[in-house]
Amino acid sequence: MQGYLPGYEIDPATWVYLSSFLTIGVFFKFNRFWCVRNLDLIALIALAPGLLWVVEGAGPGGYIWLFAVGSFFLVRLLLDPLMVRRPLLEPNLNTSGLAFSGIALFVFLMSNVVTGNMFPIAKRPISAHVEVRSSKLPLLYAVADLSQQDEAAPDGAPAEKAASEATAPESAADAEATRLERARQGSVRAVMLRTLAVSAHLALVIGIALVGYRHFGNLHTGVAMASLYLLLPYTAQMAPRVDHVVPAALLVWAVALYRRPAAAGALLGVAAGLIGYPLFLLPLWCSFYWRRGLIRFLLGVVAGLVLLVVLLVVVMVVLALFGAGDVGSLAGRLRELFGWARLRLVQPDGFWRDHGEAFRIPVIAAFCVLCGSLALWPAQKNLGTLLSCSAAAMLGAQFWHPFQGGLYMAWYLPLLVLTIFRPNLEDRLAVSAVTEGWSPWQKTHGRAGWRLGEWRPWRREA
Q1: How far, in Å, CA of 415 to CA of 386, rounded?
Q2: Which of 87, 262, 334, 429 could form a disulfide with 300 if both were Cys (CB 3.0 to 4.6 A apart)?
Q3: Which of 75, 82, 195, 178 is nearest to 424 (CA)?
């Protein structure tokens, strides 16, 4: 934003203070001081010190702080199905004020995405280990192959210069041509990533508001949840990171379309192909659709994976046409689906950089037991348990994610916000909420022929 508004720059610590005060002023219930909502808001604000600690790069203390607050939220999410009394606690600001504030926040955040740095946190670990980039970066960045010359760090340029000098000597004209070509390729990739980040944020915000209006039956709550997510310090700090926001948007829209198992499964399949961890949601979601919609859901997951492969091929071809990629590396990109390379601690970053593989194995085992148990408990699952348990599973993945584990809060924060604001959803069962047909277009007998069925996503559920 500094290029358009001279002198406009907000320090991350300053934004933490401002956003925290705004969060308390707008969403804190002063007339019900000891309610669970207020405790959740304080815990959300408590994530900010750990985030700032990581930004400063002062040792592993920031990750330990994030793990501590994440442990509280993990217990809170697992206990959420037991909280049957869910009184409606509306924000202190009306719908119009929240909508205006949310739109203003979105414009300023997306302006920072367009003009700011693509790696706002820990740029050095991402750009320094070029030799393992394909196993470190998520598929979203691996597709674009965003290397260190695109968003060059000061310490990354000498490494690239040394590597180029080790090859055959080049003339000054050849070196200048190579530099210009790399700059052009970097510009193409950067434009694609920034466009994807802005689109994903827009889809995420609309999805949160739609869940509030469509499934919670309250537009005011939907706008409040979207505004709160935009107001969080994490969102402002990590807005350009597509590997954070794209899976979050897919998961939110899977919840928004839960009445359509095929669509929800396709979105979940795409998210699983991009980052791998949503695969651990399958036991929970299969248990939810067990009485109705299971086959459609599983077929949707397979269709989503196939769609992801097709999109990957298209992106690689487009990048090759613009001279910013290589189609020959497509096979290697396909092997990066699900992100299984991250299971091994190959030059990890974050908390696990200073800890060995032996300490990580029991965490992975506990996480697998947790995800498997969600298929059995709670026995009767509704939309509320689907929200809270999905957020718990994605939060649990942070504890063993080897690269900046704990920072990928977008994978669970939108679902956590939906859980905090949700009403009682005990009647949102698959057997009653999920439609029987495959398509919103249903066949009727008589002269009417084909007509539009009862699927109207813009209308609230009864």
Answers
A1: 10
A2: 262
A3: 82
Residue type, 235: T
Tokens of 201: 């944020």
Burial 435-462 (b: 16+ CB within 10 A, else e): beeeeeeeeeeeeeeeeeeeeeeeeeee
| Nearest-angstrom CA–CA distance, 428 and 11 | 43
The closest alpha carbon to 24, from 91, 73, 70, 86, belongs to 91
pTM: 0.85
pLDDT tens, residue by residue, 277-312? 999 999 999 999 999 999 999 999 999 999 988 888
Residue 442 gets which letter from DSSP? E
More confident residue, 148 or 197: 197
Helix, strand, coil abundance in the chain, percent, nearest 5? 65, 0, 30
pLDDT digits (tens, 9 = 90+) for 178-189: 777 777 777 777
CB 156 within 8 A of CB 125: no
- pLDDT(176) > 90: no
Own/partner long-range contacts of 317-324 (Cβ < 8 Å, ≥24 apart): 319/143, 319/144, 319/145, 319/188, 319/189, 319/192, 322/185, 322/188, 323/181, 323/184, 323/185, 323/188, 324/145, 324/184, 324/185, 324/186, 324/188, 324/189
Q: Which of 140, 153, 121, 130 is nearest to 350 (CA)?
A: 121
Burial of 2 (0-12, 13-18, 19+ CB in 10 A): exposed
SS3 441: strand
Exposure of 196 in the CB half-sphere (CA atoms within 13 A): 21
**Cα Dmax for the chain:** 80
Residues 257-279 pLDDT 10s: 999 999 999 999 999 988 889 99
Q: Is the link from the previous residue into 49 a cis peptide, with omega within 30 of 0?
A: no
Other Cβ atoms closer than 10 A to 10? 13
Residue 273, both tokens: 């192909």
Rounded distance between C-alpha atoms, residue 342 and residue 275, angstroms = 10
Q: Would you state the pLDDT for residue 455?
A: 45
